[in-house]
Amino acid sequence: MIWQENIHQIVMVTNLVEGIKTKCEQYWPCGGKQMVHGNLIIRLNAEKERTAYVTREISIEDKKSGKKRNVTQYHFTAWPDHGTPDPLYLVLFHRHVISDSKAGHSGPLLVHCSAGIGRTGTYIALDALLEEGRTTGFLDIFKFLKKMRYSRMNMIQTSNQYVCLHYALLEAFTMKDTKIRKDEFSEVWQSIRTDHKALNHQRLNKEFKMLNATKDDQNHNQYNAAMSTTNLAKNRNKDVLPMDDKRVYLVSYGKGRSDYINAVQVPSYTKFVGYITTQLPLPDTKVDFWTMIRDHSSSTIVLIINNANEADLVYSQSGNELTIGQFGIKISAREEVENNITKTTIVLSRKDDKPRQVVLFQAICNSIPDPIVLCKLADLISTRATMSNDPITVVSSDGAKNCGLFCAFANAVSSMQIDNHADIFQLVRLLQLRRPEFFTDFEEYKRCYEALHLHLESANVYANF
């Protein structure tokens, strides 16, 4: 069908397996191999993974005629088995698809999920209604749904999908274009740095105001665990609490402890759980911190603190061995890196478990880390992230300030490496879905731009682009 209908783009909005059900057979080969279907030879030429989707470049060759074609598959992986995706993820995915459309290809867009009606109908409606709204200035969502169902029954299968479509369209129509290409970032940063207009008219200030305007109003009912009498004293800052559906759960907690820790999972540029962000432990929650490190197999810690003494709440800066609850912590190596960054290698052991190695990078800064410190930390964790799939634990005083800055900056660096552009505004919004208290300080937002400019400049990226 793809060959016959001259299709060059495929949008796939299901995972191959969800829960225990197979939703779709893998119709493309793994890298380095080929697949033969009838007269057609299929090869996977390239694959790029992001948080919510994967893009694949696939070539198809007709054995009879010898003709070849290239097809791009956009595989959205963030649609939950039961429910609907966050509209922001869906709209950013759609934006990538339409911006990547190949000029001169007349074939239709192929959209599929498992049954080809629910998620498929939702995506088609988003694509078609967005174009219609921009062309005519009007929308009739219900009318378009009926029109789709004349062609294929039950398109948009559930009321939740219908509601999700409305939110996605609202997001798509109001979303500003804040993406910056690698080759233009230096110029954009210089214009930001030399912008002397009134504060309300400056680019970054307007973006920061939009960030606050687009935050969801959080319901206090979402913080039941954090605000319970058992757990309230475990929070450093009563204004920075994890939501019930976003918090990290402890699994192997000991007697007298609970599954609660003030920590949330946040995405990297390529994974939904790329980081765990948490507050500096309190004297009573040190054991919870190391339980989390063990339970979630985190082998890298980034510790951003205001003074050296705070590090003793995590490990010992003087002794080489200590015991925290059921954990034995042994320092096997200490190393001064540069820019006031230290690297400590820790062996974490517990009676019922084999010892595991954890590497901790510590940066001391008065308020916000300098751009050069952020660049160095990002380089250090990048090397380790390529070696394992473990989440990286990022620690700051309250688990929000500097944690969000570091994660957003590291994600922007990855975005530049993978896609040759970065959208700091949207990267921050995706983090704020998990913890709205990220980036309450304008200086953090500005520092993210400044550090990314330094990273590109120091890597000589501008000159080599």
Question: How is this structure best summarized?
Answer:
With 465 residues, the protein is α/β, with parallel strands linked by helices.
Content of β-strand: 15-25%
**What general form does the structure show?**
globular
How many domains? The number is 2
Tell me, what is the CATH class of the largest domain? Alpha Beta
- Note the total helix count: 13
Spatial order of the strands forming the largest sheet = 10-11-17-12-16-15-14-13
CATH-wise, what's the superfamily of the largest domain?
Protein tyrosine phosphatase superfamily
Topology:
Layout: E1 9-12, E2 17-18, E3 21-22, E4 34-37, E5 40-49, E6 53-62, E7 68-76, H1 87-99, E8 109-112, H2 118-136, H3 141-151, H4 159-174, E9 180-181, H5 185-193, H6 203-214, H7 224-227, E10 263-266, E11 275-279, H8 286-295, E12 300-305, E13 321-324, E14 327-336, E15 341-350, E16 353-364, H9 371-385, E17 392-396, H10 403-419, E18 421-422, H11 424-432, H12 442-458, H13 461-464
Parallel strand pairs: 1-7, 1-8, 11-17, 12-16, 12-17
Antiparallel strand pairs: 2-3, 4-5, 5-6, 6-7, 9-18, 10-11, 13-14, 14-15, 15-16
Helix pairs in contact: 1-4, 2-4, 9-10, 9-12, 10-11, 10-12
Describe the protein.
By secondary structure, the chain is of the alpha/beta class. It folds into 2 domains: 166 residues, Protein-Tyrosine Phosphatase, Chain A, CATH 3.90.190; 254 residues, Protein tyrosine phosphatase superfamily (Protein-Tyrosine Phosphatase, Chain A, Alpha-Beta Complex), CATH 3.90.190.10. Helices cover 34% and strands 23% of the residues. The chain contains 13 helices and 18 strands. The strands form 4 sheets. Strands 10-11-17-12-16-15-14-13 form an 8-stranded mixed sheet, sandwiched between helices. Strand 6 and strand 7 form a beta hairpin. Helix 1 crosses helix 4 and helix 10 crosses helix 11. It is globular and about 70 Å long. The model has no long low-confidence stretch (mean pLDDT 92).
